[in-house]
Amino acid sequence: MKYMSCVLLSLAALGAPAGAQTCQPSAVTPYLNLNGTNSWAVKASASLNTGSTVVLGPQPVSGSWSWSGCGASGSSREQTLKLTASCTATATYTNSCGARTVQAYTFTVWPALAANAGKYIMVDQFGYLPTMKKVAVLRWPRVGYDSSEFYWPGRLQVVNSATGAVVYDWWPQEWKNRQIDESSGDQAWTFDFSQVTTPGTYEIVDVDRNQRSARFEIGDNVYRNVLVQAVRTFFYQRAGQAKNAAQAGVGWADGASHLKPGQDTQARRFLDKNNAATARDLRGGWYDAGDLNKYTSWAAGYVDDLLDAYVQNPTVWTDDFNLPESYNGIPDLLDEAKWGMDWLVRMQNADGSLLSIVGLAGASPPSAATDPSYYGDASTSATLAAAAAFAHGAKVFGSLNSTAMKTYAADLQARAIRAWNWASANPGVVFYNNDASRGTAGLGAGQQETDDAGRARMKLYAAIQLYAATGDAAYRNHVDANYTSEPMFAQWYVSAYNAGSARALLYYASLSGATASVAGNIRTRFLDMWGRSDYGGWGAVDSQKDPYRAYIEGYPWGSNSTKANAGTLFAEESYYGISRHSADEVAAAAAGYLHYLHGVNPFGKVYLTNMTSFGAERSVNQIFHSWFADGSALWDSAETSTYGPAPGILVGGPNHGQWDWDSRCPGISPKCGSSRPAPPYGQPPQKSYLDFNDGWPLQSWPISENSNGYQSAYIRLLARFVK
């Protein structure tokens, strides 16, 4: 009977419908990731610059894979490809029952730019929003290292890069009757192609002169991937954070730094190094810049900037920036701000004061550092800066729909009040790091301490944030009694160099409980000063003072952050609804500074590192940084080393009058060469830049070093133009 049952069952199976006998193919979802650093996108095609890197990671995860095309091969589900020509990569997926599914990835790879492309016709290499004012700048270099070159533009065409179709043509307009601009040494023309609004990839071509711009895109969200990379640079700057390949990209994976014995979890007081009882757990936080030190006052300012960027553009910030905290229900920008805030919490003493600095050893990669970490004593300036950040964080994190974040916010508010009370009782406690006369030589690099006026300003900012968070009239009274000490009142002056002061006062003026007369005075004074014809705001825009449409007064250390801060001052007018100009005028003025950083400058250089995979044909290749150091086979240059620096880092930019080689050159070292490199030396201000990362004796750091402050200023501006 058992045998007969088996036979009958077998016959029944043979007689089943054909579909029931067939192994069915599985659905495949195509995912790809630019450079291994973005969040994964469900896409099966992309248009990219030659040399771009993409990571393919189709799903499902189980089953087997085989690949062909575009350099893909083998059986690994994830494939990392560096693309140099248009191609199709084909994945064949075999499921557990043997059925196969084919998934194709199609890539359009733009050819490498001609040598002269982008040399004389400057555009934003990432692109333009469809309704944005679009102005290319054309240049004939008359003064500086390139003054022997010649370009006189003819009639220009906007050409669709994919089809070759001419979509607009017209003549460029002379800038200021053929004047030579002192800041750049260039004679300039502008070419307004705002009429072109159809999404696509384009170039501006001067057919008669055989010149063209870099490529650029027009689209609804051309800066989205740029913003993601700009924010992710803080992730690369995290101390004590493991950076695995899935999140950092294979080129910038590294172990958690500064967690060895005697380092951040056991940091000792610098002025009492041999006393084990001084050990503190001060892990976390960010490397401040190219050095790997952590400074309380500056870190608090970066936290404030990131929180502001969130508050002023809340819909921009998603939870998919490929950070360790991604997909936790909190916008990733706030996760990054919290990383910095958590370190500030560890720096606070029981009495409310905050330690001023933690000095970290440098290494490439950072996880290789072995020397101990030391901290500096508490100071009034560090405590006031943190009080402002704690209060700001209390308001922002408390607004989230999260019980855990509301608890966190309550703790931050209590910390802010304790910090304020300690600083009020101890108004002049200072700590000067890296100062031989005070016994602190070797602790940190930059000097974080400020003067009496600086502490007064920091206390005013803390009062503004504490009033916003608590509504306590005592903080409002402090603001009302002291706001006229700020530059726009005391010196009748507003510029990109005191943008933080102006922004803080405008924020206070926006608060519902602010004293009405004070709020009115702030708004009026700002608009009067920023609108003056002889100042660097609307007066510079109206008079077309800078042919590159991004005027600042001089090019000192960190000029790129000054550019970003100038742009945000225009944007503040729209955000607070107080402008005397139209929304389009404000947007165009602010965007001019963004376009400068994206390539509308005398070098045609995107001042962000390693952005080929994200749309920039000519971006920064080298940066002064302990990790991405000169001579590193892996990270020195995006052009010549295996990986180059991590993407999206804003460098300091042109530095006129503050850069020089070691005063003992050329005799002190063969590294000097026979003469100073020019550029950056002896150039007009906007040309005082070189894409280099040499240490001593050429000392590139005043030009090519990064700073989290530069980065946060850029993020604030960029976020205005992202959906």
UniProtKB/TrEMBL annotation:
<dbReference type="InterPro" id="IPR008928">
    <property type="entry name" value="6-hairpin_glycosidase_sf"/>
</dbReference>
<feature type="domain" description="Cellulase Ig-like">
    <location>
        <begin position="118"/>
        <end position="205"/>
    </location>
</feature>
<dbReference type="Pfam" id="PF00759">
    <property type="entry name" value="Glyco_hydro_9"/>
</dbReference>
<dbReference type="Pfam" id="PF02927">
    <property type="entry name" value="CelD_N"/>
</dbReference>
<dbReference type="GO" id="GO:0016787">
    <property type="term" value="F:hydrolase activity"/>
</dbReference>
<dbReference type="InterPro" id="IPR004197">
    <property type="entry name" value="Cellulase_Ig-like"/>
</dbReference>
<comment type="similarity">
    <text>Belongs to the glycosyl hydrolase 9 (cellulase E) family.</text>
</comment>
<protein>
    <submittedName>
        <fullName>Glycoside hydrolase family 9 protein</fullName>
    </submittedName>
</protein>
<feature type="signal peptide">
    <location>
        <begin position="1"/>
        <end position="20"/>
    </location>
</feature>
<dbReference type="InterPro" id="IPR001701">
    <property type="entry name" value="Glyco_hydro_9"/>
</dbReference>
<feature type="domain" description="Glycoside hydrolase family 9">
    <location>
        <begin position="223"/>
        <end position="713"/>
    </location>
</feature>
<dbReference type="InterPro" id="IPR014756">
    <property type="entry name" value="Ig_E-set"/>
</dbReference>
<keyword id="KW-0119">Carbohydrate metabolism</keyword>
<keyword id="KW-0732">Signal</keyword>
<keyword id="KW-0624">Polysaccharide degradation</keyword>
<dbReference type="InterPro" id="IPR012341">
    <property type="entry name" value="6hp_glycosidase-like_sf"/>
</dbReference>
<dbReference type="InterPro" id="IPR013783">
    <property type="entry name" value="Ig-like_fold"/>
</dbReference>
<keyword id="KW-0378">Hydrolase</keyword>
<keyword id="KW-0326">Glycosidase</keyword>
